[in-house]
Write a structure and sequence with these properties.
With 415 residues, the protein is an alpha/beta fold. Helix content is 33%, strand content 27%. The chain contains 12 helices and 18 strands. The longest helix is centred in the first third of the chain and has 25 residues, at 64-88. 42% of the residues are buried. It binds aspartic acid and magnesium ion.
């Protein structure tokens, strides 16, 4: 639809009634300037955790179906309140739940995927000049049961709606000014990036940048919907534009340094070195829904080998139990666990065309006498596992080694 903008406000931005009023004023102004508007909201800050905590007080593992119904109520509250606040300003607003906005998903409760959005009603209402205020994070499955899209899922609701309604723009308004070269809490002179490619953002989101849900970035990339991430508190904020990498676009070699302290490393020692063992181990983990990050298999001696892998530390106990269950099958001798590790990564699309980036990372760590336990790379990323106690220092040193505090000395790509 022409002249349509989809805005998404995060939990902090709608965290109190005053903030909701503030958002309403901004939306009202934009509407009066002639824009068609869909506003997607998250639950008020802390609400989702509070509801989840209540359920977990009743039972260890609440049923996913009931969790979805429970958590979806958080976004119903914030969307209804914002719609009321807009009406108080004389705006023709209407609050919509996931069902009402036509958000159809599969039935993977608590991590549902969007299958289809029925836009008929929505387009009709927008043509009547209504402002639609949508409860993010939720949809319905084939049976009409409420589903949710995973934590942080309102970002994905917003992008999916922007794509389905052919919006001109999708803005994610949040409590930070955009995407930064590093976490400003660790690196005080971290710099806001003006532009980040979809691929870089995908790496950053999977490496622990919490500013956007990873599925939202996947969606935006798939349908080439540019996203503007900016602060909802500062009107002057230009934010960060996340868009398709442009062939003529100049790229800094490294765009950001990320740290993930919530990792654990498991080593299974002395497993039999024969075909099918790795498959046995990782199929068992995969079947339990655990996703493994890095894997290293050591050179084997006398028919046996050690395999190390990393995964999210919350999944560590479950992974150990799974390894214990298949001990006999894989001929496992010993399981070692290291929970005090960190994954430090550098990301940058410019790496595709420049060599020596990984070497520079290793030199920087070695100059600080930081030992590297594991390494993995992709086209636009290098990650190292190190001891957790060095993680802050590593981020700070890498940030300055790659001159990230300075406005990019943009380096033209080799043709
Ligand atoms: N309220 C949900 C959460 O806290 C979804 C969202 O905020 O995007 O994860
Ligand atoms: Mg969020």
């Amino acid at each position: 639809m022409e002249n349509l903008i989809v805005l998404k406000y995060g939990g902090t931005s709608v965290g109190t009634l005053d903030r909701i009023k503030n958002v309403a004023e901004k939306v009202a102004k934009l509407h009066r300037s002639g824009k068609n508007i869909v506003v997607v909201v998250s639950a008020m800050a802390g609400e989702t955790d509070k509801l989840l905590g209540m359920a977990e007080k009743l039972i260890d593992k609440p049923a996913r179906r009931e969790i979805d119904l429970l958590l979806s109520s958080g976004e119903r509250i914030s969307c209804a309140l914002l719609s009321i606040a807009l009406q108080a300003l004389g705006c023709p607003a209407e609050a919509m739940t996931g069902r009402q906005i036509g958000m159809h998903t599969d039935d993977a409760h608590t991590r549902a995927r969007i299958i289809h959005i029925d836009t008929t009603k929505t387009l009709k209402k927008l043509k009547e000049n209504k402002i639609l205020v949508v409860a993010g994070f939720q949809g319905i499955n084939e049976d009409g049961d409420v589903t949710t899209l995973g934590r942080g899922g309102s970002d994905t609701s917003a992008v999916a709606l922007a794509v389905a309604l052919k919006a001109e723009q999708c803005e994610i308004l949040t409590d930070v000014d955009g995407v930064f070269t590093a976490d400003p809490n660790i690196v005080p002179n971290a710099r806001k990036l003006d532009m980040v490619s979809f691929d870089e953002m995908l790496e950053m989101a999977s490496l622990g940048a919490k500013v956007l849900q990873i599925r939202c970035v996947e969606f935006a990339k798939k349908y080439n919907m540019p996203l503007l991430v900016r602060s909802s508190f500062e009107d002057q904020s230009k934010g960060t534009l996340i868009c398709k990498e442009n062939k003529d676009m100049e790229q800094p070699i490294v765009s950001g340094v990320m740290r993930d302290d919530k990792q654990a490393k498991i080593t299974v020692k002395g497993v039999v070195d024969k075909p099918g063992i790795a498959s046995e181990i990782f199929t068992a983990l995969g079947n339990a829904g655990l996703s493994v990050d890095m894997i290293i298999q050591n050179i084997s001696a006398e028919g046996h080998t050690d395999i190390s892998f990393t995964l999210a530390s919350v999944d560590c106990d479950e992974a150990i139990a799974i390894m214990e269950a298949i001990t006999d099958k894989i001929g496992l001798k010993e399981i070692l666990v290291d929970r005090k590790i960190s994954k430090i990564s550098i990301v940058g699309a410019g790496m595709r065309s420049h060599s020596g980036v990984a070497a520079k990372m290793f030199q920087t760590l070695s100059a600080e006498k930081i030992n590297i336990l594991m390494i993995s790379t992709s086209e636009i990323k290098v990650s190292c596992i190190i001891e957790q106690k060095h993680s802050k220092l590593a981020v700070q040193q890498l940030h300055s080694a790659f001159n990230l505090e300075k406005k990019p000395r943009r380096i033209t790509k080799k043709q």
